[in-house]
Each structure stands twice: as structure tokens, then as C-alpha cells.
Amino acid sequence: MEITTGPPEVRVPASAEVTDTIGTAEAVLTRRTGASVRLADPEDLGGSGRSVVMRVRVAETPFELPRTLVIKHYGSVPDEGCSDPFAHEAASCQLATALPPELRVGPELIAQDIEQRLLVLEDLGRGATLADVLFGDDPKAAERSMLAWARALGRLHTSMAGREADFDALMRRVGGDSWADPVAVDIRRSLSELPELLERTLGVSPAEEVRERLSAASGLLGSTKYRSFSPSDICPDNSLVTGNGVRFLDFEWACVRDVALDAAYLLFPFPSSWCSYALPEGMAENMLATWRSEVVEVWSDLDDDAVLRPRLLDAQLLWVWVSTWWFLPRDGQSDGPIDAHMPSPRRSTALADRWRRLGEDARSAGLSEVAECADRVVRALVERFGSEILELRPYPAFR
Q1: What are the angstrom distances between the C-alpha of 82 and each of 85, 144, 186, 232?
Q2: Full-model pTM
Q3: Mean pLDDT over residues 255-273, rounded?
Q4: In contact, 40 and 57? CB cutoff 8 Å
């Protein structure tokens, strides 16, 4: 998930790519409707190195189609053994489109072509993303949007629970031989690599009790009773605020995983993001309560703090662990600049805040060894980067 390693890469498609994408989409829609379809007025929506994404106007069709559509055209098939973002997106959109409209978590799939690696999707409009709202100047709108985001996440989990076999079958149908949660892959690697990295870069050696707790927490990465579909990358720029609630936009790394790994986003916002800010006092708990009110329809025992809170702490521990592994210098570089090219807040600030909060939560839960390890990491970060990293500023809308 490259969003963890730097600002998101945005590529402006060349005119030839635009022409090719429109022509391919017209052919796909023509085959689907049985009559000529013409598209016009392409608008670049900011794809990545993997895909071209644009909004188009339906200029000519004898059938009823939406006035505008979104086209997502993927590049070449990844090397064998690598995850295919097209397969993840196509399978996810098919899975979501099968739900009743009021339960859909993302755009409706209008048409697709597996060979051409192209998707034609419902245009959810020109509304603001959650990122736009958080970086705006209206605290009430930001609060409403964050609570709507939490509710949408809960509805996603309840509406998609028990659909793992369906997702697996759809992945195979669109050419994905296998799928995996990309975060789970990185977490498993970080479990073995981060202890040495912490020792080398910060002089902190995690106690054996901490490693044992991590091993137990990694049970969230396996088969549990609380698994559901996840877009995987549920950061603010991939969440659209609409009149019907928040909708999720990007399913390139979608997977099925334990809901606690997503719910942890509610308590310390967006741990997979390269850009982290603080929330006002009490908002995280309000968001968790909103999410919880939805998921108890499927998992009634998550209404019990004795069941939910330890799972959330395990998820928090895994996120802090893997994000530290992402951010600290690796590959033999003992003094790499982890804050290079970063806007405010710095990665070192985000790490210090995550470890500080982990220490507080672990101490409250009676996990003294985890709390002590977290305290030592915070002290080492301050010694290396300065005491100013202890202040994580709120999102601009809440200042």
C-alpha cells in the first residue's frame, strides 16, 4: 500500500490514453446495450500509475444510461504472484452492486471488460471527499462527516458479513488467482523485522512479553468469527461525502479481514495513511459508538466491552507496529530521513502520538510491558527528532 510510504502519486493521463480509454468504454457499453453509445467531455479524476480514471458525459445512446459515468482503465497485468488491483476492484464492485441500492458501500458497476481491464461505474457526483471536509473550515460539517463515515463503515461490515466465499469466487472469475490483505502481509513481515529495526534505529529492544502479545494479536490476521469485507484503504481521500451518507471509492486492495482492523481507524484516525492529524476530545469514542450501533446487528457480543476492547487494543498494537516498520529507515540505512518530503505533520510526530496513545491504552488494560515499551519508543523518538514531535495538531477543520 504505497500510501504508507509517501504522498499519493497522481498521474495526468496522456491524450492517447484518454482517447484509448474512451474508445474502449464506448465499445464495452455498445456491446452491453446492443446499440451505439458515444461518450464525450472526459474529465481527469486523478488516477495513479496503475490506472486512468475519468468522468465522461453520455452524449449518445438509445437506452437509458446515467447522464455521466466514471471510467477506470487499468494498465498491464501485474507479474505472477503479485496482487492485481483490477481484479480486486472488479470483484468488489460486483459484490457491492449485488446489494440493494440503500446498502451499497460504493459505486454501482455499470459494465466491465476483463480482457480490456476496464470498469464503467456509477458517477457518485462532485461532492466533497472526507479529506476536503477535514481540511476545510467548518467544524460542525467535519464532525457530521466523521460520524457518517463511522456509520458507513459499520453498515459496510454488516451488509458484507459472511460474503468471503462470494468474494473469492468473484476474484477467480475476473482473473485473480488469489487475494490477500496487503496490510496483513506487511504486518507479518514487520513482526519479525521490526524488533531489530527498533534496536538499530532507536536503541529500543522489545521485551519477550511484548513479542508474545504481538503473536497473540496476530490472530486477528487469520480466520475469525468477526470477518467482513473491507476496502482496505479507507482513508479520507477515498471516502466521498454524499447526501445519502459516505460512500467508499477505491477497492484496488479490497479484502476480507477482521472488522477490528478497520474499527481501529476510529480510535486513532487512518493509521495506514501517510498524513495523520488529531481529532477533538471525545470524537473517537463517539465514532466508535456509531460504528458499534451498526455492527451489533450481526455480532451482538461486540456490544460487550470485555469482548470488543481487547480486540481493538490488539488491532491498535498491530497498526502501530506495522506503521513504525513502514516509517523507520530500513535496508541497512541507520540514519535515514523518515520525515523527508513530508508535509505537516511529520511522520516522526505521527509515530510519537501512536506510541504514546498505545502506552496509555495498554497501561489501562494492565499490559505493563507493552506500556513500558511504548514509553521507551516515545522517549527515543523525542531524543532523535526533538520534543516538538509530541504535539500532533488537529485537522484544520477543528482548529
Answers
A1: 9, 39, 14, 17
A2: 0.91
A3: 91
A4: yes
